Amino acid sequence: MTEKKLLLCMALIIALIWGSNFPVSKAAIELIGAWPFRFYCNVISVVILLIIVLFFFRKKIVFKDVLLCIPLGVFNLFLVPLLNNISLFYTDAVKASVLIYTMPVFTSLIYIVINRSINIKYAMTAITGVTGVLFFISVDKIGTGELIILISAFCWATGTVLSERTPVKSNVFLRVFYQNCVSLLLIVLTMPFMSDDIQLPLSVISQPRVLLPVLYTGITGGVFVYILWFYMIEKGGAELTSCAILLSPVISVLISLFFLGESVTLNMLIGMLFIIFGLFIAFFGKKSPGR
Prior knowledge:
This protein has 291 residues and is mainly alpha-helical. The protein is built from 13 helices and no strands. One of its GO terms (cellular component) is plasma membrane.
């Protein structure tokens, strides 16, 4: 299997996981709240990664890499998942899962500023993708939930660019572990200040409607998907990786349709076509000269 085909397979797996996270998480978040949900998911992620690290990578922990991973953990594993979860209080899973994928546009804009040049292929992918997103939400207003998602998309783009440009030498498992630890620490420190009535209802967490989403999101969305994500950034670059997740809203919409009963309109179908076309450009379009 060629590297491009391997990256495409990874992109499809990432799209499946992240595309399913919004609809899977929504019911649990409505029961226990965004902050407790993030706490439980983060605990699951850290425990799994700690077991892996203790068995296989205990002697490879480098303090300098831990420090370098702090800003990555703030953006990638603290702000982005938390903002996504909070947005589900104000908007439906379909719209949230679509708007987050304006991220490639923000990524391209950041690289235009950094490099003072435009990568035509990824710019076209970003434009095509955001056109698809706009078709998805063309009949709806931008409210609180949508604004939170757009902020999350910018944070995600920032974290993606930082992940490529930060000289962390530790392997991908350790990088994901460090960032999950940073996220968990920040959640523990900030949760008491968010609301007076935030609790960690252990009786509720045992319910299947909460426990299963926590396990699924903690394992796939906090561990497995980020291992693939950082590997893709390392091998394919931040711009290709950011464009690769454009298929996620298509998957998320289909899951929301079948499991949450949310409607799919003609605009959404047109948006899917634009998004899939953008993904095709990212992986099979010719490279821009000089890049």
